[in-house]
Amino acid sequence: MITFISGGSESARLISGFRSFMDDSQITVITTTAYAEESPCGCSIPDLDTQIFLFAGIINTRTWHGIQGDTCTTHHALMRLGTEEAQAVGDQERALHIFRAERLKRERLTDATIAIAHAYDIMAQILPVNDDIGEWSVTTPSGRMSLAEYRIAYDDDTHACAVHAPSKTIPHASIESVDAIRKSDIVIIGPGRPVTGIMPALMCTGIPEALRDVPVISFVPFTAERSTAHEKKTYAPDKGAECPIYDYFTDLYLMDTRDPLPFDNALHIDTRMDSRIQRESLAWDIMALAEGLKKENRR
Description:
Elements: E1 2-7, H1 9-18, E2 27-31, E3 37-39, E4 42-44, H2 46-56, H3 73-80, H4 91-104, H5 109-119, E5 125-128, E6 137-140, E7 143-146, H6 147-153, E8 162-164, H7 175-182, E9 186-192, H8 194-202, H9 207-211, E10 216-219, H10 227-232, H11 244-247, E11 252-256, E12 266-269, H12 276-298
Parallel strand pairs: 1-2, 1-9, 2-5, 9-10, 10-11, 11-12
Antiparallel strand pairs: 3-4, 6-7, 6-8
């Protein structure tokens, strides 16, 4: 059993590589709920939606979010009526948001997610890291804004200085997400946006403690200043970096072969995922490393 703590579309690309040689039933994906949005049009949880569409086989592989071929008839109708939407939402995707909002009136987010996966005939286990939908925020050089607004306004984490849980209260991870980690043979963290994508999941009470008990491979969580460089694979020399939060549970770090950043305990590999072959090759490399870590942990 392999578990991914997803960082968004980058993680979806990597997971698609693993699916080429792994059965979906052996895969668990845990996603953040930090920038969920509730509206009269339903409940949107972007990272969760991305994984659902991936395993349902309908994801738009050009953008790695949304549904391939989805229409935006409702979005355009709302715009004509004077209702502004920050982003266009496809009609099929909107149906999912409405379905989720209705389920949340009577059950936990985890239960609603399981019901959605069943409706899409998904064999993998897709879990929200916690059942709370609250207003997370992020500090930027120009001030503080909601995490949902930040993700719409900016394509990367170069403007994100820190992320904050709702009402300064760290949410508790769900029993299911903690249990999934403890039962895993290996956990892979990332790749993805470090501040707004991955940290809200790692901050949930119970997740760091569970990660201590299993082998963990982490993509080096690039600082905000290096976020764009990481995505474009165009790096400049840097003085070095430390990841005290990740160090608590990470057994092996991964970073790109082209990155000159000095980083202890990091293995440099080709992390490009532009093509299907590259995604599958990276997945195979990580699986080989995971097998090595599992053997070490048995000793």
